[in-house]
Amino acid sequence: MALEKGPVHVIQRNRPRYVILSEESYQRLAAGVEVRGRLWRRLLEDDATPVAPRSREDLDRELQSEREGWSG
């Protein structure tokens, strides 16, 4: 099946019209959108609220947690 090789691009009237994804690819894409949304909300909220300084280890831990969410 074509989806086993990746997304299928549907062309209509010589223009890209649709992209068909496998369920797994869609879930990864949707999870990435959700993670980015959470990150932006945190950044905007944190900007308005002063916080205590964090250690390098705490920051590294938070970044690693965010990165793990990106890979799905």
Write the layout of secondary structure elements.
Elements: E1 8-12, E2 15-20, H1 23-48, H2 56-71
Antiparallel strand pairs: 1-2
**How many β-strands, per DSSP?**
2
Structural class: alpha+beta
Described by the principal axes of the CA atoms, the overall outline is: elongated
Q: Profile the largest sheet.
A: 2 strands, antiparallel
Strand content: 15-25%
Integer count of domains: 1
Query: Average pLDDT across residues?
Result: 84
Number of helical regions: 2
Binned, the helix content reads: 55-70%
Distance between the termini: 24 Å
Sheet with most strands: strand arrangement = 1-2
- In quaternary terms, these chains amount to single chain
Question: Low-confidence stretches at least 5 residues in length (pLDDT < 50)?
Answer: none
Observed structural traits:
58% helix; 2 helices; YefM-like_sf; Prevent-host-death protein; alpha+beta; two-stranded antiparallel ribbon; 72 residues
Question: Can you describe what's shown?
Answer:
- There is one protein chain.
- The chain is α+β, with helices and mostly antiparallel strands.
- The protein has helices spanning 23-48, 56-71, and strands spanning 8-12, 15-20.
- It starts with 7 loop residues before the first strand and ends with a helix.
- The model has no long low-confidence stretch (mean pLDDT 84).
- Strands 1-2 form a two-stranded antiparallel sheet.
- The protein contains 2 helices and 2 strands; from the N terminus they run ββαα.
- It has one domain (2-71).
- It is elongated and about 55 Å long.
- Strand 1 and strand 2 (15-20) form a beta hairpin.
- The relative contact order is 0.11.
